[in-house]
Amino acid sequence: MGTTVRNAGGLDVTTDGAAGSGPTARRLVLGGQLRRLREASGISRDDAGYEIRGSGSKISRLELGRVGFKERDVADLLTLYGVADETERATFLEMVRQSNQPGWWHRYSDLVPSWFQDYVGLEESASRIQTYEIQFVPGLLQTEAYARAIASQGMPEAVDEEVDRRVGLRMYRQRLFNQPNAPKLWAVIDESVLHRPIGGRAVLREQIEHLLEITKLATVSLQVLPFDLGRSGAEGAFSILRFAEPEIPDIVYLEHLCGALYLDKPEDVEIYSKVSHRLAVDAQTPEATRKTLQAARKNLLD
Asked: b/e map of 59-81 (b: 16 or more CB within 10 Å)?
C-alpha cells in the first residue's frame, strides 16, 4: 500500500504504487512529487538549487528522476517547500532510501551499460509494455537458446561466462510474467523475424513453439506484421513503457549502437503512440498470428 498525506499548503502527496516498484520507479515518483511541491510553493528551480548547494539544472535532473537523491538534499528541499509534518517528511526520506537501493540487475553492472540498466529498472515497474521489433523476437519472449545465439553472435564456440551471464540476465527479466501484477505486454514483430534462422532451424523452431505457448497468457499479445505491409511509419524498433503511477510519464525507448534514447515529452510519445496504433491495425490479429506461427513451425519441420 502507498501513503497519501497532505502538506501545509493543501497539496496531496502520495506514494501509492511506488512502494511495490523497483528503485527506478521510486526515483521517478519521488522526483515528480518534489516538482509538485516546488511548483505549489512558487519556487524556481534556480532558488531550489541554491538551497541544496547546487543549480537549477540539478533540480531538473532530480525532478526527472535521472540522478540519485541524497537525504540531506531532500530534507532541505522539504523545509524550503514548507513541509514540516514529521510523518510526511519521514515518508519522503524513506522513499529516498528505497530509491537508492540497488536493483537486482546491479549484479550485472559489469556487463550491462548504464543506459540499459535504466531500461531494465523501468521495465520491471511498467504496467504496460508496447514493443515493435524488425529483426529479432523481443527479449521478453526469447528462449534461452535463441538468446544465446544472439549473445554469441551465432558462434557457439564463442560461448563463455560472459555470454552465459548475458543470457541469464535476459531470462531473469522474464520473471515479470510470473508476478502477481504482471505488466501487459503487446508486441508486434515483422514477419521476417519468423524466417531468420537465428541459431539454426532447430533453435528457431523451438522459439516459435515458445511463442505459441507464451501467447496463451492473458498478459501477452503478439501480432505479426506481414511482409507486404511495410513498417507502417516505423523506421526501426521501439518500445513504449506505460506506468500506473501518475507521476511517471509514458516513456519511449529507442536503442542504437552507442546507447539509447528515452523520450518522455508528450508530443514525442504521442507520435509513437499513433505509430503503435497503426501497427495494431495493419498487423495480423493475435488469432491470425497464431496461425502464421503454426505455419512457420510446420515449414521448419519439413
From this structure: bbebbbbeeebeeebbbebbebb
